[in-house]
UniProtKB/TrEMBL annotation:
Keywords: Transferase. One of its GO terms (molecular function) is nucleotidyltransferase activity. It comes from Dyella choica. This is Nucleotidyltransferase domain-containing protein. The lineage of its organism: Bacteria, Pseudomonadati, Pseudomonadota, Gammaproteobacteria, Lysobacterales. Pfam families: NTP_transf_2.
Length: 266
């Protein structure tokens, strides 16, 4: 357990542990996220993995909402298809608000993990630890090719929205680009897992300053400056681990497009 954990989180964790222990269909309760990485504070989520008996898995999956209701005052919940994880139930509890993720897996689901979770409860601790010891644990870092194939399409999209005067759209694509491309590449430069822009302000002052230049206000001049900063930062970060093949005519073609469509000089 982290050296310091807020009282609200402690109480909630104990309720989840007790409920898992009471339900014989459930074999283990694991915790990830801030619980194991550090930086746990009153704003942290609770990220749980619940290991289910194989034969009971369909039944448990069908009644996940009931389990979620049993562990606290559930305000809202939805499943994680939007992040490619249908096994995940994303929950908000209150009235003291706390975000809780409940992922239900079988033992086979522990074969590939993005992190080594902490074991909070296990009916057979030795077996659970053995499964975790045998797991392939790797953060899903993206390749230079993944970034290069997408970056210029997304940047061009932002440029077209700017040219049309759709500033909210331009601001939105810049935020998306920071999360999907620039943040991960800045973490890559520092030798960290590619976790979007998570905790960038506290982890890396220089990287934060670079990202800040890509943040636009609702103003065409500001949006254009932010877009140009995003292009420059991507090209700089790309040089760390160049892709096998770069997109032809970039960034020159995009700079020309910006000049022609917006009528401004570089």
């Amino acid at each position: 357990m982290p050296s310091t954990i807020p009282q609200l989180h402690t109480e909630f964790l104990e309720r989840v542990r007790s409920e898992v222990a009471r339900d014989t269909r459930l074999n283990a309760l694991l915790a990830g996220g801030s619980y194991i990485h550090g930086g746990f504070d009153p704003h942290s989520d609770l990220d749980f993995v619940i290991v289910v008996e194989d034969d009971s898995y369909p039944e448990v999956m069908a009644s996940r909402q009931e389990f979620a209701h049993r562990i606290g005052d559930l305000l809202s919940a939805f499943t994680g298809e939007h992040v490619g994880e249908p096994r995940l139930l994303i929950c908000l509890y209150g009235p003291s608000l706390i975000h809780v993720d409940l992922k239900f897996v079988t033992s086979a689901g522990l074969g590939r993990l993005v992190e080594r979770p902490a074991v909070l409860f296990a009916r057979n601790l030795e077996h659970t630890e053995a499964l975790l010891d045998a797991a392939t644990i790797a953060w899903p870092n993206l390749t230079p090719e993944w970034f290069e194939q997408r970056a210029w399409i997304w940047l061009h999209y932002g440029a077209t929205k700017l040219a049309r005067g759709e500033l909210f759209e331009t601001i939105g694509i810049l935020g998306f680009f920071r999360e999907q491309v620039l943040g991960p590449m800045l973490h890559r430069r520092a030798g960290r897992p590619q976790r979007g822009v998570r905790r960038m302000e506290s982890m890396d002052v220089r990287a934060s300053a670079q990202l800040a230049r890509t943040v636009a206000t609702h103003d065409a001049v500001s949006a254009r400056a932010a877009l140009l900063a995003a292009i420059d930062l991507y090209v700089d970060l790309r040089s760390d681990e160049p892709p096998r093949e770069v997109v032809r005519q970039m960034p020159e073609a995009l700079f020309s497009h910006l000049k022609e469509s917006i009528g401004a000089t570089q």
